[in-house]
Amino acid sequence: MSTIRIQPLTAQAFAPYGDVLDASGAPDKLINQGLCGRYHDRATLDFGPNGRAGISIFKAELRTLPCLLEMVERHPDGSQAFVPMSEHGFLAVVAPDQGARPGRPLAFQTAPGQGINFHRGTWHGVLTPLAGTGLFAVVDRIGETPNLEEFWFEQPYTLEI
Questions:
Q1: What are the two backbone dihedrals, phi and then psi, of residue 36, each rounded to the nearest 5 degrees?
Q2: Region 79-83 average pLDDT
Q3: What is d(CA 59, CA 161) in angstroms, rounded to the nearest whole number?
Q4: Are strands 80-84 and 115-118 parallel, antiparallel or unpaired?
Q5: Spatial distance between the Cα atoms of 132 and 111, rounded to a whole number of angstroms
Q6: H helices of 4-123, where?
């Protein structure tokens, strides 16, 4: 079994796979009588020609480290954003595409207050909260056609810090 070392989530390291959703740096503008900073247009949402944006609520079971990564999935027809509804980080696992199969995965630990948006077609692990409620708002594609591909690894990976 191979081990994947979890690294901190940064916009630069995550860029090939998606967008980091956070309030880092100065806000793009102040709104609400100057009492609220707006961090504008932080993610590229993509729902393909036959879908629309939807917001769902996911409640995932908490995990403990080390944990096994047995499979990844992707959504060929739409991006998928995860916005935690608590002040806790979670794991974001991604893998490069190598000829319609995932390559070696990478694992990122988000900081409290960070969310992510997986680009359309990005291989990624399942929702993996490590603390808190496991409650997330998810913005993704709603449509009539299938939008899920799964890949099960012959040998699972161990995720650890």
A1: -140, 125
A2: 98
A3: 24
A4: antiparallel
A5: 13
A6: 11-14
Do the bridges between strand 90-95 and strand 149-160 make them parallel or antiparallel, or are there none, so unpaired? unpaired
Handedness of CA 111, 92, 141, 120 (dihedral sign): positive
Count the residues in the chain. 161
* 49: Cα within 13 Å, side-chain hemisphere: 0
Domain residues of the chain, as ranges? 2-160
Work out the widest C-alpha separation in the chain, in whole angstroms.
56
Residue type, 139: V
What is d(CA 21, CA 85) in angstroms, rounded to the nearest whole number?
Answer: 13
pLDDT in tens, 87-118: 999 999 999 999 999 999 999 999 999 999 99
- Distance CA(108)–CA(93), nearest Å, equals 6
Locate all alpha helices (DSSP H) within 5-148, ordered by sequence.
11-14
Q: Does domain 2-160 have CATH number 3.30.420.10?
A: no
